[in-house]
Design brief:
It is a single chain. The strands form four sheets. Strands 5-4-1-6-9-10-12-13 form an eight-stranded mixed β-sheet, with helices on both faces. A two-stranded antiparallel ribbon has the order 2-3. By secondary structure, the protein is of the alpha/beta class. It is globular and about 65 Å long. 27% of the residues lie in helices and 26% in strands. Bound molecules: cytidine-5'-triphosphate and calcium ion. Cytidine-5'-triphosphate binds next to helix 4 and strand 9. Catalyzes two steps in the biosynthesis of coenzyme A. In the first step cysteine is conjugated to 4'-phosphopantothenate to form 4-phosphopantothenoylcysteine, in the latter compound is decarboxylated to form 4'-phosphopantotheine. Its EC number is 4.1.1.36, 6.3.2.5.
Length: 227
């Protein structure tokens, strides 16, 4: 294993990957989450490791085993994910594939919420979560050389992805069709476009493993020769 890791085009490159959903607690037994499987993010971490990168995978709760040959850190909330990601810097490349909850429950209770005599459901108040991709993309000495985000969209894929690209300040966006007919969410295949400063590349419908492989090689090509 050691000698396999020592070879490869990403030898000496530090990579950070976020994957999976985040869970935002409502009370000690309940949370707001989403259906992200973590398959794509985990596959990217594995592909980067296969090319020799020193990978840290930060993952929300998923049903997948920890991939081999990397450091895996398990978190629950968006805030924990951000804190852990910042703690991993500096890295050469960051890939934010996690489906981070956009909101956290600001009135989460320490004790389990109980039904009361009124029969009314209790209010759930939401507050915005920090944006991990945008934070990592901020200019500064600790900014990774390459920051890659995902844009999961159910409609107007390229239009929404382009807007996200500009708003987040990242270098690449993998635009991901997650509409129900695409069958991508939770499935094994993905239909993606890669957006860079240079424009958009359409990738054929390929497995998430192949998307990961292709992305990892593209990362290697980009970082190679630009130490
Ligand atoms: N992302 C993140 N932190 C957040 C929200 C999103 O790091 N709090 C990252 C995701 O990992 C992904 C990218 O931002 O790489 C886009 O996520 P997405 O949910 O598609 O974008 P949002 O900006 O949250 O917009 P919306 O959900 O309204 O489409
Ligand atoms: Ca979102």
């Amino acid at each position: 294993v050691e000698s396999l890791l020592a070879a490869g085009p990403l030898k000496g490159i530090k990579a950070l990957v976020t994957s999976g959903p985040t869970y935002e607690p409502i009370d000690p037994v309940r949370f707001i989450g989403n259906r992200s499987s973590g398959k794509q993010g985990h596959a990217i971490a594995a592909a980067l490791a296969r090319l020799g990168a020193d990978v840290t995978l930060i993952t929300g709760p998923v049903k997948l085993p920890d991939p081999a040959n990397m450091r895996v850190i398990h978190v629950e909330t968006a805030r924990e994910m951000l804190g852990t990601a910042l703690g991993c810097l500096p890295v050469d490349v960051a890939v934010c594939a996690a489906a981070v909850a956009d909101w956290t429950v600001s009135n989460a209770s320490k004790e389990k919420r109980k039904k009361d005599a009124s029969g009314q459901p209790p209010p759930i108040e939401l507050a915005a979560n920090p944006d991990i991709l945008a934070t990592l993309s901020e200019k500064g000495s600790a900014r990774p050389r390459l920051v890659v985000g995902f844009a999961a969209e159910t409609e107007k894929l390229l239009e929404h992805a382009r807007a996200k690209f500009v708003r987040k300040g990242c270098d690449w966006i993998v635009a991901n069709d997650v509409s129900p007919h695409s069958g991508t969410f939770g499935g094994d295949f993905n239909t993606v476009h890669l957006l860079t400063q240079g424009g958009a590349e359409e990738w054929p419908r390929i497995s998430k493993t192949d998307v990961a492989e292709r992305l990892a090689w593209k990362i290697a090509d980009t970082l190679k020769g630009h130490p």
